[in-house]
UniProtKB/TrEMBL annotation:
It comes from Drosophila navojoa. Residues 25-36 have a biased composition (Basic residues). InterPro entries: CUB_dom, DUF7805, LDL_receptor-like_sf, LDLR_class-A_CS, LDrepeatLR_classA_rpt, Non-NMDA_GluR_Accessory, Sperma_CUB_dom_sf. The chain crosses the membrane at residues 1126-1146. One of its GO terms (cellular component) is plasma membrane. This is CUB domain-containing protein. Residues 15-42 are annotated as: Disordered. Pfam families: DUF7805, Ldl_recept_a. The keyword Lyase does not apply. The keyword Transmembrane applies. Disulfide bonds join 106-118, 113-131. Keywords: Disulfide bond, Membrane, Transmembrane, Transmembrane helix. CDD domains: CUB, LDLa. Residues 144-270, 372-522 form the CUB domain.
Length: 1147
């Protein structure tokens, strides 16, 4: 016969004695003792426990906790482990496991009484005769070492009584199992009242008097312990089918007036589908109702509700109703059934049983051999959630979990962890909450503040614990800031201390415990300066000729990090330097190119360093302004004028392939000549151009006083932070631009803002065609603050040379302008808005005026390009003009590119074509020179001479007035073809119908100093056609305009492609007739012109006035020049003679 050990018999005897004593107590005494426990629960002040950022346990009354917990929709873990079978202990425990199989009709969660009744397993051995026949209260029964089951929708209570002194040490094992189906998938245990010994430390021997351990079935026990006191509620949720509670009490309190053991719980089983807080999958269609608030109403209220008097205020909402984070609103018993409140939180959506407001969460893959470490992948395609073990319940002690998030290779991602269900996500306290209660609310703590409890979460910027730590936090009650990795890998480490206790808060709402972090994957550009491929160091190289916006790194930076931005201007095309200017160029004053081709222009648009984490919540708005005036350089931006280290060979943004040079800090850059030109800290912001943040396109340009310009071709930005940017964001935004100071050719004046250049043939060793481009210095354009721009590019040829200009690319955006080629004269003219244009001018003689020879603009790529012009003189100028520029005008919207070449030309022409005087007539005879050339012995020489003579023919005639107060009038016999006036928007007048009347390809071009150009077909003086073309000097039709007094009044006359024959034109000087009637009129005048002319043109045998008055008989006859008396006498004699002749004839 099996003999039990003496110790076991003694233990059972003590149990019997204790049980008998308990039964002998009157029922009303037991009720009063229970009532004392409830009162103690409702009036005690909870102690504060920090359960990781993660977990803070709320204090609440037992009644409120019961109501809230009964309505909770908890979380279940996906586990396929088999349900543990009911324990068969002490002989009488077997009934709990055989109830359903014995044919009595009791379920697995019920105890089968001897009289055939079924009672819940939790009522076994509870000192109450629930069966009626006492079969549920056998002798020597105990609640320990048993397995408890339940049915979905039912809540069970369980209490362990304080053991006697002679039963210490006391050990009790309770197993709660969800058997699947009606018996649930997840176990929820609510700790209503808990006291086990004393709690002394989180790390070393923290539970000397006793402890509670919680383990999961099919997982290795981790040995963490709970002790101390708590007045609940505290929730536990299983991740497997079973939760195993081990309670051990080593000693009782010496002071018998108090006690150090109290253990009262409630448990229930839940289905996985309803566990939306952990698993997600919240459907639009509400789940079936399992909680009805009317059960808490008194009979009068139930009757009133049944009559429909309060149906408007309350509705029987499903307990599974949740917000977007999966948090169950039914936890808040005060609002769960309030229809108005629930409608204000969530807008009604169309119901569809196949749709979800939030999909099922992906909780990672458990690493074999670990308790809670998981691997996450493809989070860009899955709703990944990082959850603490047993979330949203209390997590185990003595635990370290690793959550590794990794994207497949080849993907460039940012992984941000952002809290979705907070550590202690509670509703705001009631309005009547006191300041003292607010101070007791849990707060998020970071870094060294987590060393006391040692429950914390650490986020690594990488896949190993050797990577930089970007965040370490603990505590609760606040949202966790987003932590963003710098690459496709992220590691989250969760550690808990070996020992722990339960504390609460002033909130009367049931909290969630642990943490849940959402993982978001974003694909980024590898060449973006906001993404660093190198964790150490954080360094960027930005080189080129453009501009851009530079912002702070979009990923999180670890404490004491330094990011360097090296901005350096670098050319990408060949310049005029390839022409190999002669060495004597450098000896000339003012001919030097700048020491550096580029400069860097920095305009800081924004700089912000947030206050210390959590400070904003405790600082009033008025105090913030005071704090911002104090300098805080925990995070700062410094601008260095120059480079901090040698430029690497690589051309990558990050220079990831550059061999390591062994630098980790700025100490490597100690021996350099750079200096700090600006430092931005919190409360100290030297210069900003923040108005560009409002409207960057149309905002007034940033001035030099609002920005920074380097003295060389490089600037280095240093971003330093002593705290993690997760908790204290450090933001900046600035515009940078590489100013290209290079200009082709030689300077005419001096200074960086002088864009006038010259190209001298005598200083060039090579005569082949070369490229010249417009200026690219942004400070000369509208976006750099300049309103008007005019650059002159002068080309000086040697004697016997001419200049050939070819404009092959012109851009004048932001204005409606185009240019067309006049095929008669092969010159280009501009039409439309000509505020931005490129013009070609020629100086026929070294001291003469510039004559307009073409205009080019192009805003829509419809202009005729390229445009080519070969000069007839040695000096040519190209003018690049831009008026009324705006912030939209820069070197990219207004520019040109052309080529120039010095070509051979006649050394000199025989006839001089520069004329002065009050009047004159030019007679030209063009013969067939080629016929004469055939009879020459040296044919090649004379062919070359022929070409030079043809060029001499095309040289312009320059007619200039004798002084600046007189105008010119030129008239020739020709057929008018077209007129181009750059001073008017329409610009041109064409008479295409006259072209057929012109029997020759010869053209005559008359040009004023303002660019007014008239094209005509010249006629021979012997021609019967009465066709004349005339032109006046500049300013004739604008008089009196004293602002134009200094304008040149010369006129150019060109004969292009002259055919054989005779041609002529004449000119005369004009003076405007007096406009006042009292003024004396001039003696010689052309009435139709309204001008006074010189006396020399009067009656000279050449018609100058259009009406011919200057050569009329009445004006030019010799008789008309006699005195009046003689003329009168002669007239009388003539009349008398006529009368006498008539009388004689009559007779």
């Amino acid at each position: 016969m099996f003999q039990m050990p003496a110790t076991t018999i003694a233990t059972q005897c003590h149990a019997i004695k204790a049980s008998s004593q308990s039964q002998r107590q009157p029922k009303h005494q037991r009720q009063r003792r229970s009532q004392r426990h409830v009162n103690a629960t409702s009036t005690s002040t909870s102690t504060l426990t920090l359960l990781l950022a993660l977990a803070a346990v709320a204090t609440t009354t037992a009644a409120a906790a019961a109501a809230a917990t009964a309505a909770a929709v908890p979380v279940a873990a996906a586990s396929t482990s088999n349900a543990a079978k009911p324990a068969n202990l002490s002989g009488y425990g077997s009934s709990s496991g055989s109830g359903s199989s014995s044919g009595t009709g009791c379920s697995l969660a019920e105890f089968s009484c001897s009289n055939g009744r079924c009672v819940p397993l939790s009522k076994f051995c509870n000192n109450n005769n629930d069966c009626g026949d006492g079969s549920d209260e056998p002798r020597f029964c105990t609640r320990c070492n048993r397995t408890y089951y339940g049915d979905i929708g039912q809540t069970y209570s369980l209490e362990l009584h304080r053991p006697k002194q002679d039963r210490v040490p006391f050990v009790c094992v309770l197993t709660f199992t969800a058997a699947g189906g009606q018996h649930g998938d997840v176990v929820q245990v609510t700790l209503d009242s808990f006291t086990i010994g004393r709690f002394t430390s989180y790390v070393h021997e923290g539970c000397p008097d006793g402890y509670m351990q919680i383990a999961e079935s099919a997982r290795t026990p981790i040995g963490g312990m709970w002790c101390g006191s708590s007045w609940g509620p505290v929730l536990f949720y299983s991740e497997t089918r079973s939760l195993i509670f081990t309670i051990k009490l080593n000693r009782l309190a010496r002071d018998q007036s108090g006690y150090n053991f109290d253990f009262r719980i409630r448990y229930k089983v839940l289905s996985k589908d309803s566990s939306v807080t952990r698993y997600g999958g919240i459907k639009l269609a509400e789940l079936s109702q399992w909680h009805n608030r009317s059960s808490f109403l008194n009979p009068q209220q139930q009757q009133a509700q049944a009559s429909g008097s309060v149906m408007e205020d309350f509705t029987n909402s499903s307990g599974a109703r949740s917000d977007r984070y999966g948090q169950d609103f039914s936890l808040f018993s005060a609002y769960a059934n309030n229809k108005t409140f629930m409608d204000s939180l969530e807008k009604p959506l169309p119901k569809d049983e196949h749709n979800y407001t939030e999909p099922k969460y992906y909780l990672g893959d458990l690493i074999p051999g670990t308790y809670c470490s998981r691997i996450f992948s493809d989070c860009d395609k899955k709703p990944c959630r990082l959850q603490s073990p047993n979330y949203p319940g209390i997590y185990p002690r003595n635990l370290t979990c690793y959550y590794a998030v990794r994207q497949p290779k080849g993907n460039l991602v940012w992984i941000s962890t952002q809290e979705t269900s907070a550590t202690n996500k509670m509703a705001p306290p009631p309005p009547s909450a006191s300041d003292k209660d607010k101070k007791l609310e849990p707060r998020l703590k970071t870094w060294n503040d987590c060393d006391y409890i040692q429950d914390y979460v650490t986020v690594y910027d990488g896949y190993t614990t050797r990577d930089p730590i970007i965040l370490k936090f603990c505590g609760g009650g606040q949202a966790v800031p987003a932590a963003v990795s710098s690459g496709p890998e992220l590691l989250v480490e969760f550690s808990t201390s070996p020992f722990g206790t339960f504390t609460g808060t002033s909130s009367q709402l049931l909290p969630l415990y642990g943490f849940q972090l959402e993982v978001e994957v974003q694909f980024v550009d590898i060449q973006s300066p906001t993404y660093s491929k190198n964790k150490k160091p954080c360094e960027f190289w930005i080189r080129g000729t453009g501009r851009g916006i530079l912002e702070n790194p979009k990923h999180s930076l670890a404490p004491n990090s330094t990011c360097l931005y090296h901005l350096q201007g670098m050319g990408v095309f060949k310049t005029f330097d390839h022409l190999s200017l002669s060495r004597r160029t450098s000896s000339q004053s003012g001919m030097h190119q700048p020491l550096s081709r580029f400069k860097v222009w920095i305009s800081v648009l924004k700089f912000n360093l947030d206050p210390e984490f959590g400070q904003m919540d405790e600082t009033s708005v008025g105090a913030i302004g005071v704090l911002q005036t104090q300098e805080d350089c925990s995070g700062m931006l410094r601008i260095w004028d120059g480079t901090l280290r040698d430029v690497p060979v690589c051309k990558d943004l990050n220079c990831a392939n550059e061999p390591s040079q062994g630098y980790n800090s700025l100490g490597h850059y100690a021996h350099n000549s750079t200096n700090v030109i600006a430092r931005f800290c919190r409360g100290t912001i030297p210069r900003t151009c923040d108005r560009s943040n409002i409207n960057e396109t149309f905002a007034r340009p940033c001035t030099i006083s609002e920005s920074y310009v380097s003295s060389s071709d490089a600037i280095t930005l240093e971003l330093r932070n002593t705290e993690s940017t997760v908790l204290r964001p450090l933001d900046f935004k600035l515009k940078y631009e590489f100013i290209d100071l290079h200009q082709d050719g030689l300077p005419q004046g001096g200074g960086e803002l002088d864009c006038n250049r010259k190209f001298v043939s005598s200083l060039m060793d090579r005569k082949d065609p070369a490229i010249f481009r417009s200026v690219r210095n942004i400070f000369l354009f509208g976006r750099g603050g300049t309103r008007h721009l005019k650059c002159v590019y002068r080309f000086e040829a040697l004697r016997g040379e001419r200049v050939r200009i070819k404009l092959r690319k012109v851009t004048t955006s932001n204005r409606d302008c185009y240019s067309r080629l006049d095929e008669d004269i092969n010159r280009s003219f501009c039409y439309g808005d000509t505020n931005v244009r490129v013009e070609i001018f020629e100086r026929p003689y070294s001291d003469s005026i510039l004559l307009h020879r073409g205009c080019v603009c192009n805003s829509s790529n419809q202009s005729h390009l390229p445009v080519e012009y070969t000069s007839t003189g040695r000096d040519v100028e190209v003018h690049f003009t831009a008026h009324n520029m705006t912030t939209l005008d820069d070197p990219d919207t207004a520019n040109f590119e052309g080529m120039f070449e010095f070509v051979k030309a006649p050394t000199s022409c025989k006839d001089g074509r520069r004329k002065f005087g009050p009047s004159g007539t030019i007679d030209m005879t063009f013969g067939d020179v080629s016929v004469k050339a055939r009879h020459e012995q040296h044919h090649c020489y004379y062919m070359h001479s022929l070409l030079f003579q043809i060029e001499c023919r095309s040289r312009p005639w320059l007619i200039e007035p004798s002084n600046g107060n007189k105008f010119l009038y030129v008239r020739l016999k020709a057929i008018f073809l077209s007129k181009h006036n750059p001073q008017k928007s329409l610009n041109a007048t064409h008479l295409e119908t006259n072209s057929w009347r012109c029997e020759t390809k010869s053209r005559v071009v008359l040009t004023t100093s303002e660019g007014l150009t008239i094209v005509a077909c010249p006629l021979s003086p012997d021609s019967n056609a009465y066709e004349f073309v005339e032109i006046f000097s500049s300013g004739w039709n604008e008089r009196p305009n004293f602002a134009l007094m200094n304008r040149s009044r010369a006129i150019s006359v060109e004969f292009l492609r002259p055919s054989n024959g005779e041609y002529s034109f004449n000119w005369m000087e004009l003076v405007p007739r007096p406009t006042l009637s009292i003024a004396e009129d001039c003696q010689f005048k052309c009435a139709e012109l309204g001008a006074c002319v010189n006396a020399s043109v009067w009656c000279d045998g050449i018609v100058h006035c259009p009406s011919g008055d200057d050569e009329a008989f009445l004006q030019c006859s010799a008789l008309m020049k006699l005195p009046a008396e003689i003329l009168a006498t002669l007239c009388l004699i003539f009349v008398l003679s006529c009368c006498a002749f008539a009388a004689f004839a009559y007779k």
